[in-house]
Amino acid sequence: MNKAQLIQELNFKAVRSSGAGGQHVNKVSTKIDLSFSLKDSNGLTATEKERIYRKIGHRLTKDGVLQMQCDETRSQHRNKELAIARFLTLMEDALKVKKKRRKTKPSRSSIEKRLKQKKKNAQKKTNRGKPQID
């Protein structure tokens, strides 16, 4: 994954932020809409694209475009930085390969311990019953 190449391929659009805020919100476009076309990206290899598509395919549009928004701060530049950081962490997380789980066999002592505990519990429960007179 070439981070510098990916950042160059990002498209940004400044939009008016929603919510309370008075005149400032109505005048200034501080919200950032980030879009990234996974299909057209040159910063990712084909295997990386496939892995990303499998992991975050539900977040992509039909055209294979990832869209993110950021309107946390009142600064357009800070929102842009936050959006880029979120995008890069999302890409890194999507490209991580999970370790394959290996089955392990319980040790002999743990098996014996479990069986002893089962016998002890069974004995305890039989002792709780009515005594049998022969």
Automatic annotation (TrEMBL):
<protein>
    <submittedName>
        <fullName>Ribosome-associated protein</fullName>
    </submittedName>
</protein>
<dbReference type="Pfam" id="PF00472">
    <property type="entry name" value="RF-1"/>
</dbReference>
<feature type="region of interest" description="Disordered">
    <location>
        <begin position="97"/>
        <end position="134"/>
    </location>
</feature>
<dbReference type="InterPro" id="IPR000352">
    <property type="entry name" value="Pep_chain_release_fac_I"/>
</dbReference>
<feature type="compositionally biased region" description="Basic residues">
    <location>
        <begin position="97"/>
        <end position="106"/>
    </location>
</feature>
<feature type="compositionally biased region" description="Basic residues">
    <location>
        <begin position="115"/>
        <end position="128"/>
    </location>
</feature>
<feature type="domain" description="Prokaryotic-type class I peptide chain release factors">
    <location>
        <begin position="16"/>
        <end position="32"/>
    </location>
</feature>
<comment type="similarity">
    <text>Belongs to the prokaryotic/mitochondrial release factor family.</text>
</comment>
<dbReference type="InterPro" id="IPR045853">
    <property type="entry name" value="Pep_chain_release_fac_I_sf"/>
</dbReference>
